[in-house]
């Protein structure tokens, strides 16, 4: 796993590093991706109890965003999963952390880089004992 857990639990301690990470986007040499994106997804914290599987495999048509991936998870895991990750306005809850290939992602419209296969995505809900 490539997650910087210090960035997950204590945002203030690593705020400088946390916000210097560039957003994920397609690389210039592949502007029109074709085919499917393979995603290996891991659920942590309170999300892990919502699914029998903590590790899931997804396949999405390219190009895809983090929001597209969450919509696919809603279809697979149900509305209760999505309600734990997103608020009523469709924004990510502040206590939910998403990491794509080890980099934190806040914007749900971030494009998933199709050049890496499979894409590693981790989602964690931080409850009070975990630092949330």
Q: Within the CATH hierarchy, at the fold level, what is the topology? A: Ubiquitin-like (UB roll)
Mean pLDDT: 78
Tell me about the largest β-sheet.
5 strands, mixed
Number of domains: 1
CATH architecture descriptor name: Roll
Task: Give structural notes.
By secondary structure, the protein is α+β, with helices and mostly antiparallel strands. It has a single domain, classed as Ubiquitin-like (UB roll) (Roll), CATH 3.10.20. It contains 4 helices and 5 strands. It has a 5-stranded mixed sheet, with helices on one face. β3 and β4 form a beta hairpin.
Quick description:
The protein is an alpha+beta fold and 132 residues long. The protein contains four helices and five strands; from the N terminus they run ααββααβββ.
Write the layout of secondary structure elements.
Elements: H1 5-9, H2 15-20, E1 36-45, E2 55-61, H3 66-77, H4 79-85, E3 96-100, E4 103-105, E5 119-125
Parallel strand pairs: 1-5
Antiparallel strand pairs: 1-2, 3-4, 3-5
Helix pairs in contact: 3-4
Defining key terms:
132 residues, Ubiquitin-like (UB roll), 23% helix, alpha+beta, five-stranded mixed β-sheet, 24% strand, 4 helices, globular
């Amino acid at each position: 796993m490539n997650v910087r857990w210090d960035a997950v639990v204590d945002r203030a301690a690593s705020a400088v590093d946390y916000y210097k990470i560039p957003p994920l986007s397609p690389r210039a040499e592949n502007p029109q991706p074709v085919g499917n994106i393979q995603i290996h997804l891991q659920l942590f914290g309170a999300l892990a109890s919502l699914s029998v599987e903590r590790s899931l495999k997804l396949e999405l048509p390219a190009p895809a965003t983090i929001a597209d991936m969450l919509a696919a998870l809603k279809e697979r895991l149900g509305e209760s999963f999505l309600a734990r990750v997103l608020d009523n306005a469709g924004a990510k809850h502040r206590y939910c952390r998403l990491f794509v290939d080890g980099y934190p992602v806040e914007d749900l419209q971030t494009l998933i880089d199709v050049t890496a296969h499979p894409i590693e995505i981790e989602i964690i809900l931080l409850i009070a004992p975990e630092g949330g």
